[in-house]
Each structure stands twice: as C-alpha cells, then as structure tokens.
C-alpha cells in the first residue's frame, strides 16, 4: 500500500528540509520513496509544497487531488489552500501559526478568521503550536523539525533511526537542538 504525505508551508519555514529528512528516513527503512517539491515564490514568502510518497513500489512522486493520506501544514492558511489534495479519509497536522502574506500586509485583505474551526469541522486535525515549543527549546528555526516529529508519531514511523538521520543531515552544532525538536514533536501527538 502506498502512503502519500503532502507538506505545505511558506518559503523559509524549512518545509523542504523536513521533507528531505522524512524521505531519507523512509528510504533507510526500506521503502521505495518518491519526493517532489514546488518552491513557487518561496524566496519571497510564497507557498511551498513537497510531496512524499512511499510504499513497496512507488511509480510517481505526484499526489493527485484527493490523494494525500496526511497533510502537514507549517502555516494554517496553507492548510486550507491545500485541503483539496487530502483524501476524504485523510487527516492533517497543522501548525497553529500565521504568516502574513503580501496582500494581507498591504491591507488589501485580512487574515482569515476561524481557520482552526473550519479545518476541524472538515477533517481530523491535530493542531500543533510549534512556535511555542520552538521558543521553549530556544530556536524558532526548529518549528519544521517539531512538525516532522509530530508527523513521525502520527504516521507510526518511530522505529526509524531518526537520531542517525539528523546526525547525518544537519550541521554538527545544530544536531542537539534538532534532536530535541524531533522528540518534542513526537510528544505532541
């Protein structure tokens, strides 16, 4: 059986790094894994998405509309934007975090109210306050790894050696904080 994970966020949130770590872990666990990423206007705070599909044999990295088993959203408005890609039986892990887009900052639009309630009414949703947890750890840049930890737990992937993957993938002086972040993320689910 093939599982499809859609990770979405805003440029600069570390969505692609989290996807690459997830892909590495799944490959080391023996799965056939395909990953694709779309950067869009990521350098300017635009939408970023990454699709990870794994199973015994995976022929395409692309998740079609209504094909994702799980949606991981690093910013809550992005969860609404990508919701149509989730299966009717799918679920979401959503960072309770807002990033003001250019139209919102310019005053043309307001940030939508009630996103959490809307998501919760439509699909099983795990809300994670990764910003609060990252602040407790001492580095806001580990929100992505906290969300990765939550994903690992929600998908039942704890048996993979994530410590080795973190040690092999991040700069030595950031290993400890990333290991702490992944542990915190797993504890939130």
UniProtKB/TrEMBL annotation:
Q: Which UniProt keywords apply?
A: Oxidoreductase, Pyruvate
Please name the source species. Geosporobacter subterraneus DSM 17957
Do the record's keywords include Oxidoreductase?
yes
A Pfam match is POR
Query: Mind telling me which NCBIfam families this protein's record contains?
Result: PRK06853.1-5
- Protein's name according to its UniProt entry: Indolepyruvate ferredoxin oxidoreductase beta subunit
PANTHER family linked to this entry: INDOLEPYRUVATE OXIDOREDUCTASE SUBUNIT IORB
Question: Per the record's keyword annotation, is Nucleotidyltransferase included, yes or no?
Answer: no
Question: Which is one GO molecular function term here?
Answer: oxidoreductase activity, acting on the aldehyde or oxo group of donors
Domain Pyruvate/ketoisovalerate oxidoreductase catalytic spans what residues? 11-186
């Amino acid at each position: 059986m093939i599982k499809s994970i859609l990770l979405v966020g805003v440029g600069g949130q570390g969505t692609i790094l989290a996807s690459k770590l997830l892909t590495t872990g799944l490959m080391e666990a023996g799965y056939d894994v395909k990953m694709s990423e779309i950067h869009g206007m990521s350098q300017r705070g635009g939408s970023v998405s990454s699709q990870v599909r794994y199973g015994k044999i995976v022929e395409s990295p692309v998740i079609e509309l209504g094909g994702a088993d799980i949606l991981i959203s690093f910013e809550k408005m992005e969860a609404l934007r990508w919701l149509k890609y989730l299966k009717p039986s799918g679920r979401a892990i959503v960072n309770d975090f807002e990033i003001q887009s250019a139209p919102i900052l310019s005053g043309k639009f307001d940030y939508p109210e009630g996103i959490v309630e809307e998501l919760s009414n439509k699909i099983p949703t795990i809300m994670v306050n990764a910003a609060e947890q990252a602040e407790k750890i001492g580095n806001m840049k580990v929100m992505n790894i906290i969300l990765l930890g939550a994903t690992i737990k929600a998908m039942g992937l704890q048996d993979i050696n994530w410590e080795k993957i973190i040690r092999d993938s991040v700069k030595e002086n950031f290993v400890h904080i990333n290991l702490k972040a992944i542990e915190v993320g797993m504890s939130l689910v």
